[in-house]
Task: structure prediction
Amino acid sequence: MKNFGRPEPPQRTFLIPIFPPVPKSVFPVSLLTSDTLAAARSLLGAVLEHRSPEGVTAGRIVETEAYLQGDPACHANRGETPRTKVMFGPPGRAYVYLIYGMHQCFNVVTRPAGTGEAVLIRALEPLAGLDLMRLRRGSTIKDMNLCNGPAKLVQAMGLGAGHYGANLIGSGAGSGGGSGARGALRLLAADSYPGGMPAAPLIAGPRVGISVAADLPYRFYFKGNRYVSKPWA
DNA sequence: CTTTCGATCCGT
DNA sequence: CGGATCGAAAGG
Result:
């Protein structure tokens, strides 16, 4: 007995508040089903969270673009192909595609199966895993530029072709991963992370980088937000 | 089959 | 402003 019969000193427990106890709720599918333009607006403020083997990253969506049925700029417009297959599936799945031979872009599929619409996620405000994001993006990248573009956020969040078809809003096994991983990639409600829904007003403007239907105001972002890809456009 | 070109990013 | 870099889509 190392204390020679004296009573053990009282054990003190330290409750260190690392993160506020914010409950995480999945983004409601009802906001994706009826109207893709409304969905693109509703997705502003929502959180994309990726639990990868390397660590957890998360970001708040601050910029989106809608791609609709009958819209010549929409990949699904010319019918269902191997690439656009997931766009014609159920809502809440990930549509990931290769662009310019070297970058990937990430979309959230909307509307009931058979429709072929989606919302491109164009920018995130980094919330968690900033070190990992810096690691993935490169040491010369400034924090402001980690996720302020559709291919940048894909790289910072560790996403890729393997997430094609991932269920972003499922609650049980099988959700999150495109092939194998379970619950790794989730779309969460705005209040799932500290800060919650930004108070800034929403702006609608023309979409970026397209050559057809370039006049339609299908791009949405928070006014004055520091992490929007092209704040001036 | 061949050619074209894109929902981009980065360094100059 | 140009170069990287690869498939999907369009054209013959």
Observations:
- Residues 75, 78, 81-83, 97-102 of chain A lie near DNA strand C (CB under 10 Å from a C1').
- Chain A has a mean pLDDT of 91.
